[in-house]
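Recall that a protein's primary structure is simply its ordered list of amino acids. Everything else, from secondary elements to tertiary packing, is in principle encoded there. The following example makes that idea concrete.
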Amino acid sequence: MSIEVKVPQLPESVQDATLVSWHKQAGDAVARDENLVDIETDKVVLEVPAPTAGVLKEIRVKNGTSVAAGQVIAVLEEGAGAAAAPKAAAAVAPMPVAAPAAAAPSQAENDLPLSPSVRRLVEENKLDPARIAGSGRDGRLTKGDVLDYLSKGPAAAPVRAPTPAAVPAARAPQVSGVREDRRVPMTRMRARIAERLSESQASTVMLTSFNEVDMSQVMALRSRYKDKFEKEQGVKLGFMSFFVKATVEALKKYPVVNASVEGNDIVYHDYWDISVAVSTPRGLVTPVLRDADRMGFGDIEKTLGDMAVRARDGKLGIEELTGGTFTITNGGVFGSLYSTPIINPPQSAILGMHAIKERAVVVDGQVVARPMMYLALTYDHRIIDGREAVLTLVSIKESLEDPARLLLQI
């Protein structure tokens, strides 16, 4: 029986998308739930899994074509050649694919289907998905859930580090060595990023204030407890959790920095959903930590780790990328010493972290070497005065230089 393969439902407000790359060719055998094609929207890359095992009979839409929700893009012949799926997949797909449906956990065995990346981890490590708690939407298993389970398991097999999904259109072409110009169309995500940044520059009155923070106490605390933290929480203790907690406490003191502008109104948000910038092969995305004020250090590190992996793999949902009230970006991971970050509309402020460098500073009249970081707070001067901006930076600085403040919330 022939089955039509259609473009899935697109995120709200997204009218169309771009078919990026087929992972199968006409005539190839496929396994159930195996990813057939990647479809890129403004912010996320959607996978289109095979609805059943069979043979890809016909491809109706080529790579790089704009598509709409519900559009038929291929025809799958059910059943025929299903047993040969693994062999065909190994010859065509650019990365390991799922085993045949008979060898993989079926939807009947698990209440919710597994994504191809999760299915691969489960199969490679011979795991029972029913024994792993899912943290995704509707309780679905994420790659982070499986990796966390493996890290705690008594006989966990070594797991290869996740690799970003290959999306040829997102990569710059190789340098040819010939004096020439090369024209490459922007991906949808890159075009949307350009549009949003231009909108931010045109619609806000941006001003940036700077400060510097002595990271000695945070680094000492992290060094003292990192092993015990990792053992108890199952994740490494990073710097970002300290910055998220310090930022939330500062925003509670100065709520206008957590607000946004709608027409002639200032909308104050009595919740703290912190967007954290993540660099991916396709561009910068900002997954959101919902109710960050209620999260512990371990919760923040686990959630950020999972989101970073899924962001690089293009697996974040649009609801995970929208609705933040304040953004934190860390150019320091690439070596940036000083920068002026751009506001992420409709938010009104953004905090920029930078590289930690040992510098000579004066402490109690003595010149000493300390690990220092420059902080930058860009804010919308239409609603945020310099006083609130500077005091917000000072509050973050004080919390980081004396982390006990985060425990006492002072």
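Residues 81-111, 154-170 have pLDDT under 50 and may be disordered. The CA atoms of residues 260 and 346 lie 6 Å apart.
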